[in-house]
Amino acid sequence: MEHIMETPTLKAPAGRFTGDVHLNMIETPSAPAHLASALVRFTPGARTNWHSHAKGQVLYVTDGVGLVGTRDGSVVRIGAGETVKCPAGEEHWHGATDTTLMAHIAMVVGDGGGDGTTWLEPVTDEEYTAALKLTGR
What CATH number should be reported for the domain holding residue 67? Predict the structure, then answer.
């Protein structure tokens, strides 16, 4: 058994996020494990860039209200206690609404050489505003 007393809160890299995003790594796996997980906190309006995961991603919302969008224009509004599964290879983004913070636990299965995430361009303000409108804001 390993008891980890605390993990440092880090500012998420500006090259992969818009707005203020903070994360605490829960698990950074070493072989033979492959599951990486982190608690990610988004301030209002903050969001990830477009990205995909080679083996998919699971998001479990712990607090607040947020959005998850896909390239086909689908957007879901998510709240505490809800889970979103993003399939392997699907380009998507996630973040807080414009008025409420959102925190989630992000879980990604890697291949031992990383977490299989491909980071893409930022979600534009126009794309974000359109997502808010689609979900009733």
Answer: 2.60.120.10
On whether residue 5 sits in a domain, the answer given is no
Question: Which of these, 64, 131, 60, 52, lies nearest to 96 by C-alpha position?
Answer: 64
Averaged pLDDT for residues 13-33 = 89
Write the CA distances from 89 to 16, 30, 33, 50, 128, integer angstroms. 17, 23, 21, 12, 21
Lowest mean pLDDT: which of 42-46, 64-68, 109-113?
109-113
Q: Is residue 4 part of a domain?
A: no
Report how far residue 113's alpha carbon sits from residue 104's, in angstroms, rounded to the nearest whole number: 24
126's enclosing H/E stretch is helix 125-134
pLDDT over 70 (residue 81): yes
CA distance 137 to 121: 24
Is 80 within a domain?
Answer: yes
- At 93, is the secondary structure helix, strand, or coil? strand
Q: Give the tens place of pLDDT for each residue, 113-134.
A: 667 899 999 999 999 999 999 9
- Answer whether residue 112 shows pLDDT above 80: no
32 domain residue, yes or no: yes
Domain that holds residue 54: 10-134
